[in-house]
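for the recovery benchmark. tokens below, seq after
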């Protein structure tokens, strides 16, 4: 009896393993049947994942010898200028990794370079996705996760930037403490929780879990969720009609192995940078000191926009309210940056609500076909860039021999007028590009060949665009979605606002090119492939 039970149990286990194996094989076959199109914009996702892998590997190796502690010790290492100095265990262990551990400096610098490249790669993904409309249904959640990944990378980078406990990172932590303390009512409590006591407190011990566990763990969840959504929704196609449609590459194994090769190239470049380019020389900065700051100290580039936001606020901007001193010099930058990130998250949903677009979009847009969206993107990027550039105002002042106040004043004015000006210029450039495309679709490309007509006049020969190019140049105007009235025929405030925004979003679309048949009916012939000359058609009225 016991033998029969054991035999049946073994059979059930073999059956489960067989079904599991069949499911895996079926999944692999499904991935092998799925096709993907190659495009340069897809490489940034591979670069981001490679940086994460490099950060994980080098971070694990560094964790074996790094000591996250604010306890004071006497430095006795081989670096002569600091021998006998009082430093924290965190700084001493960082020096030990750099000068005493075999390959330690290579690990540190490769880790730091990967931390610098990863946010740049995510920013490029954000820009490409925004300008191409890749955030529309069904990929709205994927956009939100991409923004969340950027925020998590910023949190991980900032916490890791502070761990060496050198003079540069100590200056940054001092700024953070001042910003936190300026928050009314709860600032002192937050600073006490963050630092665990008077500055510097136990900040290293508190930031270490955020850097090695919390932020990376959440980032893994976000990346896995985005990968699952990509498998579910498929790849959005590029707006590039081809004369002969291509099948693309199989997702497995062709595209997967090409991505693996790109990972190898990216990883090799990061290691090469770590081996040849010095970064974060903590021995030059020296240990952090409570009463000292380094001249010209700046954060890593990806945190520069926060530092720049603090610098652009007018000096002495504060008031007393209810016995509390409210410092706008720190609250306003926090609010502005928070609103900027909030708008970045909700924009796909706002655009869908404004345009009442609930359809599925599997083809990306040409930026010039959506002038308002492209203008918004350029304005937002310029806003971020001005804040980022303000972080280097002191360097600009010293290098170009101009006063620091004039640099700040220029950036303050640019921050107020620059985004609006960039929006309008971008919108008009998009309209101009649409008009150029329409002329090519109507009359073809200029060849530079001038012929004499039978009536004695002269005309230039135009080569007609092929059907694929005409499809690519076609402009599809965004239809306005007017505000909807309720059952009583009344138009409420929200719908009135949405209707106005919808009409604004639809501006800047050139009237599409007429078909060749319509042109012929009006007595105007397009230039054919054979090179026959044609007269230019009168301009069709366009909406601004």
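predicted aa per position
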């Amino acid at each position: 009896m016991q033998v029969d039970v054991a035999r049946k149990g073994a059979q059930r286990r073999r059956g489960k393993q067989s079904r599991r194996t069949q499911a895996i094989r079926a999944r692999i076959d499904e991935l092998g049947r799925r096709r993907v199109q190659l495009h340069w914009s897809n490489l940034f996702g591979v670069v981001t994942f490679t940086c994460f892998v490099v950060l994980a590997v080098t971070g694990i190796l560094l964790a074996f010898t790094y000591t996250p502690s604010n306890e004071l010790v006497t430095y006795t290492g081989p670096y002569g200028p600091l021998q006998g100095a009082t430093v924290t265990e965190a700084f001493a262990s960082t020096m030990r990794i750099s000068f005493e551990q075999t390959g330690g400096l290579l690990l540190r610098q490769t880790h730091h370079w990967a931390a610098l490249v990863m946010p740049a790669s995510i920013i490029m993904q954000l820009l490409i996705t925004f300008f191409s409309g890749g955030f529309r249904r069904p990929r709205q959640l994927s956009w939100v996760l991409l923004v969340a990944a950027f925020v998590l990378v910023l949190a991980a980078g900032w916490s890791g930037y502070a761990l060496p406990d050198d003079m540069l990172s100590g200056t940054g932590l001092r700024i953070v403490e001042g910003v936190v303390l300026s928050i009314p009512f709860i600032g002192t409590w937050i600073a006490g929780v963050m630092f665990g006591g008077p500055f510097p407190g136990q900040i290293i011990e508190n930031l270490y879990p955020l850097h090695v566990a919390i932020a990376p763990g959440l980032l893994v969840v976000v990346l896995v969720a985005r990968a699952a959504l990509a498998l579910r929704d498929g790849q959005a196609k590029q707006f590039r009609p081809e004369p002969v449609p291509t099948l693309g590459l199989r997702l497995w194994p062709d595209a997967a192995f090409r991505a693996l090769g790109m990972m190898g190239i990216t990883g090799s470049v990061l290691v090469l940078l770590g081996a040849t380019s010095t970064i974060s020389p903590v021995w030059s900065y020296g240990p952090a000191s409570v009463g000292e700051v380094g001249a010209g100290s700046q954060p890593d580039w990806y945190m520069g926009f926060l530092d720049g936001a603090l610098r652009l606020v007018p000096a002495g901007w504060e008031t007393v309210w209810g016995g509390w001193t409210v410092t706008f010099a720190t609250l306003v930058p926090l609010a502005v940056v928070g609103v900027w990130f909030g708008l970045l998250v909700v924009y796909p949903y706002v655009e869908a609500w404004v345009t009442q677009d609930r359809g599925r979009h599997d083809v990306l847009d040409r930026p010039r076909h959506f002038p308002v969206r492209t203008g918004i993107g350029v304005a937002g990027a310029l806003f971020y860039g001005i804040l980022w550039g303000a972080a280097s105002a002191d360097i600009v002042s010293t290098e170009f021999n101009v006063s620091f106040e004039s640099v700040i004043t220029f950036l303050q004015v640019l921050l107020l007028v620059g985004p609006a000006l960039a929006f309008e210029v971008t919108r008009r450039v998009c309209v101009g590009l649409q008009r150029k495309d329409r002329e090519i679709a109507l009359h073809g490309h200029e060849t530079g060949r001038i012929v004499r007509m039978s009536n004695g006049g002269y005309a230039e020969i135009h080569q007609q665009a092929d059907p694929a190019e005409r499809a690519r140049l076609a402009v599809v105007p965004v239809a306005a979605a007017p505000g909807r009235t309720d059952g009583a025929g009344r138009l409420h405030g929200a719908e009135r606002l949405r209707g106005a925004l919808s009409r604004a979003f639809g501006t800047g679309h050139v009237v599409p090119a007429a078909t060749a048949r319509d042109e012929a009916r009006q007595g105007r012939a397009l230039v054919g492939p054979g090179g026959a000359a044609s007269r230019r058609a009168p301009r069709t009225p366009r909406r601004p």
